[in-house]
Amino acid sequence: MIQIECVLGQAGSGKSTFIKQMFDEEEHIFFNVGSILRKMFGSSLGKRQEDSKNTWSFADPLVYNIFDNCYNISRNYNIPLVSDGFPRNLNQLDYINTKLRVAEYGPVTINMHLLDISEKEQLRRILKRNGELTEYHVDRVAESRENFECVITRLESILLKDSENLRYNLNWYKQENGTFIKVSTNTPQYK
User: Fold this and answer.
1) Which alpha helices (H) appear in the chain, and where do they start and end?
2) What's the pTM value of the predicted model, to 2 decimals?
3) In order along the chain (191 residues), what is the average pLDDT of each group of 10 residues?
């Protein structure tokens, strides 16, 4: 059984910190979408795209290709895959869900680790991290919140369609004093 650990949350929700605290670097393959794209294209490219503040229009095909390769290595070497921020939108969720339902890829368990923070806390963290809170940052916060909610809604319907080949586990966390505490499993209750 292949394990995929997807860490999802709004921008600034602590995904990278969660991963560092929960997953041993030597025992997992790490797939950090934002880091990969920033290293490939630079953060200024995202700001130049008028149609979207947080998702570059050309990025999804690249992300899918990198995910496919990471997943194949995970499967071939039986090393769990940890994803930081993927799937971050409905297109990405539909991609992973459709691809991994194919029998040749399974059986697969996807553990969704959901980190939800209030908008006020999210804005505070982004201000602290960037030293400013521009219109770009405010738009990014709004988009990341909307994407997170859409993914959660779709996940709730996907959970009803688990198969022998693909199983989802939803794990909700709250944050206290820099620590992540699991508050529920499979039933999204913490918001």
Assistant:
1) 15-22, 33-41, 43-48, 59-77, 90-100, 119-130, 135-159
2) 0.84
3) 91 91 93 81 55 58 90 92 92 90 79 91 89 88 92 85 80 86 67 33
